[in-house]
């Protein structure tokens, strides 16, 4: 494993854990105030506290490397296209789950280069669990201060197939995929935890035919790919970042077992 990249990933993981502690301070309050952003998604003090901590820490860690966060200003693509590297951050992925108090929310931090994540870390504040991945070099999971454990996707999909899907966003396209899939078990779960279940071999496939933003997926994509899986668009190409003005992802599928033709099932369900 590249020592420099591993060291940087370790620092990013520490920053994610610190942001998680900020989030938990708000999470334990009896009532959590919220506002609505322009897209009608909720915003809480936890989102903002985590954003401020991460943005400041990353600026100190890598001066001059831009930080693109869900809660930051969005530079126009003419400016972003000149970026060689940038941090891509969701300070609190799963704000609806945070408000529902079901624990299914994460902190996502990825370093992007050449439109792909160099590495990513996903921290789960409620369980103090951190997932990390450096594509081509390995993925891991660490709970608290315990030693990190290596992760690997399930090489063979289970029977019935273990599908993970969004708890807050489910539509006809997913229903069509499931109907074509046959025997399956569907586990609804929030945030980037869906990817993490695939990376640790606890789930087989995550089809996403609805909108997501780049900060929702980059860190977790790194973890899945580093664990031996894939996250691809419907044309079979890896999900890419910072390639256009909009920051919305196309439809994609994340999976572990590469022998199954997941894409055929997705294309027919649209």
Walk me through the structure:
This protein is α+β, with helices and mostly antiparallel strands. The protein is built from 8 helices and 14 strands. It has helices at 3-27, 45-61, 77-80, 95-100, 172-181, 193-199, 214-226, 262-269; strands at residues 34-36, 42-44, 67-69, 85-93, 106-113, 116-124, 129-134, 138-143, 149-151, 161-166, 184-189, 205-208, 230-233, 252-255. The strands form 4 sheets. A 7-stranded mixed β-sheet has the order 3-4-5-6-7-8-9. It has a 3-stranded antiparallel β-sheet with strand order 12-14-13, with helices on both faces. A two-stranded antiparallel sheet has the order 1-2. Strand 5 and strand 6 form a beta hairpin. Helix 1 (3-27) packs antiparallel against helix 2 and helix 6 packs parallel to helix 7 (214-226). The chain is globular, with a radius of gyration of 17 Å. The model has no long low-confidence stretch (mean pLDDT 93).
């Amino acid at each position: 494993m590249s020592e420099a990249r591993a060291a940087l990933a370790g620092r990013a993981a520490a920053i994610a854990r610190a942001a998680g502690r900020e989030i938990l301070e708000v999470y334990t309050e009896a009532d959590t105030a919220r506002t609505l952003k322009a897209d009608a998604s909720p915003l809480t003090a936890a989102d903002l506290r985590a954003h401020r901590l991460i943005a400041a820490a990353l600026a100190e860690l890598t001066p001059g490397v831009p930080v693109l966060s869900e809660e930051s200003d969005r530079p126009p693509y003419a400016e972003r296209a000149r970026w060689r590297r940038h941090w891509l951050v969701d300070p609190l992925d799963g704000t609806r789950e945070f408000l529902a108090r079901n624990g299914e929310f994460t902190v996502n931090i990825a370093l992007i280069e050449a439109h792909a994540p160099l590495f990513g870390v996903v921290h789960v504040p409620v369980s103090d669990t951190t997932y990390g991945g450096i594509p081509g070099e390995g993925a891991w999971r660490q709970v608290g201060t315990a030693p990190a454990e290596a992760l690997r996707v399930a090489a063979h999909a289970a029977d019935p197939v273990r599908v993970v899907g969004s708890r807050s966003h489910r539509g006809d396209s997913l229903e069509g995929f499931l109907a074509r899939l046959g025997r399956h078990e569907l586990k609804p779960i929030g945030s980037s935890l869906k990817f993490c279940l695939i990376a640790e071999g606890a789930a087989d496939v995550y089809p996403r035919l609805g909108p997501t933003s780049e900060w929702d997926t980059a860190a977790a994509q790194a973890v899945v790919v580093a664990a031996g899986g894939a996250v691809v668009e419907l044309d079979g190409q890896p999900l890419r970042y910072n390639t256009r003005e909009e920051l919305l992802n196309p439809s994609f599928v994340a999976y572990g077992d590469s022998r199954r033709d997941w894409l055929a099932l997705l294309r027919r369900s649209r």
